[in-house]
TrEMBL record:
This is Tryptophan-rich sensory protein. Belongs to the TspO/BZRP family. Keywords: Membrane, Transmembrane, Transmembrane helix. Gene3D superfamilies: TspO/MBR protein. PANTHER family: PERIPHERAL-TYPE BENZODIAZEPINE RECEPTOR, TRANSLOCATOR PROTEIN. Its main location: membrane. InterPro entries: TspO/MBR-related_sf (IPR038330), TspO_MBR (IPR004307). The keyword Hydrolase does not apply. It comes from Ensifer canadensis. The keyword Repeat does not apply.
Length: 150
């Protein structure tokens, strides 16, 4: 299997789908009208952070696909992608803060699961997911705070 091609496909797919979902679920007037906690970052920070994270997620997906395809880590990687791509349409598209909170908690669990499941077999993948875990943990607290404040 052509390893560079697999990496390219995974990175392009994750980054491309992530950007497409983000582009189609831009925070609008509804989001601006919500009460938010003081630690809410400025809107401009989300696109660059997610772009970097999506590249890292694509790299991990390619690594797991190439070397650990039939493992719990790969299944959890797929699960976290589903939860990741569901969150924006729920939160921004449907304006359903509660459902988005449930999804982001599931995402947090799946991301942590990838780290745990890959720690022994593919430490590099586990380490690449640590910034993602930190960001999703922050986003979970933010989503929960917005839920409670509105």
């Amino acid at each position: 299997m052509n390893r560079p091609l697999v990496y390219t496909v995974f990175i392009a797919a994750v980054l491309g789908l992530g950007l497409l979902i983000g582009y189609n679920n831009i925070p609008g007037e509804w989001y601006q009208s919500l009460a938010k906690p003081v630690f809410n970052p400025p809107n401009w920070i989300f696109a660059p952070v997610w772009s970097v994270l999506y590249v890292m997620i694509g790299i991990v997906g390619a690594r797991l696909f190439l070397d650990h395809r039939r493992t719990a880590a790969m299944r959890l990687w797929l699960a976290q992608m589903i939860f990741n791509f569901l969150w924006s349409p729920l939160f921004f598209g449907l304006q359903d803060i509660a459902s988005a909170l449930i999804v982001i908690i599931a995402l947090l669990i799946a991301v942590a699961g990838v780290i745990v499941a890959s720690w022994q077999r593919d430490r590099a993948s586990a380490l690449l997911f640590l910034p993602y875990l930190a960001w999703v943990a922050f986003a979970t607290v933010l989503n929960g705070s917005i839920f409670l404040m509105n």
